Amino acid sequence: MADTIQEAVTLALDDAPERNFRETVDIAINLRDLDLNDPSNRIDESVVLPAGTGQETQIVVFAEGETAVRAEEVADEVLDSDDLEDLGDDDDRAKDLADETDFFVAEANLMQDIGRYLGTVLGPRGKMPTPLQPDDDIVDTVNRMKNTVQLRSRDRRTFHTRVGAEDMGAEAISDNIDVIIRRLEADLEKGPLNIDGIFVKTTMGPAKEVPV
């Protein structure tokens, strides 16, 4: 399958008109034979891409003490419990932060307060933080998330996710797509039979079908 994925990616890259900016590469996934009104059938997965996302990933950490100090090395922003309470009182700022941030991480003991102060903002956006357990290394966790994308269908049969950037090359991008397809097939009730089609394209380029 890897060879046919790479052929589709190569076509998408070759047929994309030249732009004066660095384009991302995305896939559109079409599902079938699933009742997506039932939340248990919806796709909601974090996938680590072996070749990385090719883009900056914005990560915010809620932490205190030593964990906060270490998080400063790798996260885009580190917030403590006082910051969290302030966000709870400023709905507009909380929404802006949620929209600008790809992933949140929080020390497990802060999760209850995050639910209380930010649950109504982060929950509907699928942005509730990944809990950091006492034995977890915050640097490793954040670095892994920088190579992570979210697969989230909600109640739609077609959804999109980023798989790289045009200058990464077809082989690296196809490796990322292969991992995503394998994860989907493992998660879906009927595996490949629940996938109606997958298409790859650059930001402004034509879509090419990926054989599955």
TrEMBL record:
Q: Which GO terms describe its cellular component?
A: ribonucleoprotein complex; ribosome
Among InterPro entries, the record links this protein to: Ribosomal_uL1 (IPR002143), Ribosomal_uL1-like (IPR023674), Ribosomal_uL1/biogenesis (IPR028364), Ribosomal_uL1_3-a/b-sand (IPR016095), Ribosomal_uL1_arc (IPR023669), Ribosomal_uL1_CS (IPR023673)
The Swiss-Prot or TrEMBL record annotates one GO molecular function as: tRNA binding
Per the record, the GO terms for biological process are: regulation of translation; translation
Say if the entry is tagged with keyword ATP-binding: no
Signal sequence, renumbered to the chain: none
Pfam families in the cross-refs: Ribosomal_L1
Q: Which UniProt keywords apply?
A: Repressor, Ribonucleoprotein, Ribosomal protein, RNA-binding, rRNA-binding, Translation regulation, tRNA-binding
The annotated subunit structure for this chain is: Part of the 50S ribosomal subunit.
Q: What does this protein do?
A: Probably involved in E site tRNA release. Binds directly to 23S rRNA.
The family assignment reads: Belongs to the universal ribosomal protein uL1 family.
**Name of this chain's protein:** Large ribosomal subunit protein uL1
What is the species listed in this Swiss-Prot or TrEMBL entry?
Halorubrum laminariae
